[in-house]
Specification:
Helix content is 66%, strand content 0%. The chain is elongated, with a radius of gyration of 28 Å. The chain is built from 25 helices and no strands. It folds into four domains: 113 residues, no CATH class; 59 residues, no CATH class; 107 residues, no CATH class; 87 residues. By secondary structure, it is mostly helical.
Length: 391
Amino acid sequence: MALPEDRSIPLDKFPQKARRFLGPEAPSRLKTMVASGLVPLKPVVQLCALYQIATQEGGTLASLASQSVRRLPPSTLKQALSQPIIPLVLDWLADLLDNDEDLTRVILLNRVTDDVTVTRLAMGANQATCDLIAQNQIRLARSPELVEALFFNSNARASTVDRMLDFAARNRLVLPNIPEYEAIVAEVAGDLPPDEESAAAMDEAFRAAQDALSELTGKATNEEELAEIAKEIAEGPRSARDFESVEEEEEEDKSRQSAAGRIRDLNVAQKVRLALMGTSAERGILIRDTNKVVARTVIRSPAVTDSEALHYSKNKSLLDEVISFIASNKKWTRHYRMKMNLVMNPKCPTADAMRFLTHLRLSDLRVVARSRDVPAPIAKTAKHLVKTRTG
C-alpha cells in the first residue's frame, strides 16, 4: 500500500448532508461549524470532515479541526479508529494523537492503516508498540521498510529484532538499509530465544551492553584507550597479575572489563545494532570487533562520516575488509589525505594503492618511497614516480 499524492478526499465520498459544509463553494461560517465540531455527524464521517478541513483549508480552521479531534471522548475515537476509515485520515490522526498510546494502538491494529503510517510510527515507538508492530507478519512481509524501521529503533527488544530478522530471511525480504543483512541472519540462525524467559534475559543483556558501551566511550579520552577497550571486548578479562598494583586503579580496571564483557557476550546481530545506533566513539570500538560481520557492518553504516572514515583509513589494525571498503568508496577517496592514508596502510589492496599513488604530491611520494611499512611493490612504484617527476 502507499498513500496517494493527492491528500484530499473526493467530495462524493461524503454523505449528502456533509457535502454542503465541505464543498469549495461552502461559506466559511459552515466550514467553521465543521471545524468546531458543531455539525452532528457520525464519528467516522466527522473525523473525515475534520481531516478535510484541516488539510485543505489550513490556518485557523486547521487548528480548530485539530482541537475538535482532541476534544472527542476517547471511547468515541477508539470506536471510529477501529473502523475501515480512509487511510489518509488514519495517517493524519496517527500524528495528531501520537501522545496517546491506547489510540495509537487502535490505529496500528486497523487493517486498513497504510504501511507508510505504521513505518513512521515504528521509528519512534516504545518497546510495547514495537512488539505490537512486529507481531503483524503480514505487514512485515509486504513492507521491508517497516522491518528496517524496527531494527534501527533502539527501543525495540533484542529478542523481537532477532525473531523479526529470522522471519525476514525466511521470507527472502530485501533489506538494503541494513548492512551485511544476509551475513547477520546467518550468524543469528539457531540462536533465537526458545521461550519468553530466555527472551527476557536476552533483552536485559542487550540493554546492559548498551549502557556499558556508553559508559566505556564516555570515559575514553583518546584513540589508545578506545583501542584498549576494543581489545578487552575481543580477548576477555586479563589475569590478576596484569592489574595495576594500586587498589583504586585495579577496581577501575575490573569495572571496565566487566562492562567490556557485557558487550562481548552479545550475538552478532545485537553488536551490529549497537554499532548502527551508536555514536562515532561507539562505532570506533565496534569496528575493531574480531567478527568480520560486525566490523564490515560498521564501516557500511550510513552514519559513518568522512572524518571517521579518514580516521579509520590510517588504522593498520583494522580488518582488511574495512580498509578495502574505504578504498572502494569514491566519495571518501576524493579527499587527498584519504589517498595518502590508504597508500601508507599495508592493508589497502595493492591495485587501489597503486591508483592513489599517481595522485600524490612529490613530497608525499618521497615519504612512501622511504617507508618500511608499505608493501615493496608500492615503495618501488613510488620511487619510480619520484624519479620520473624529477627528471
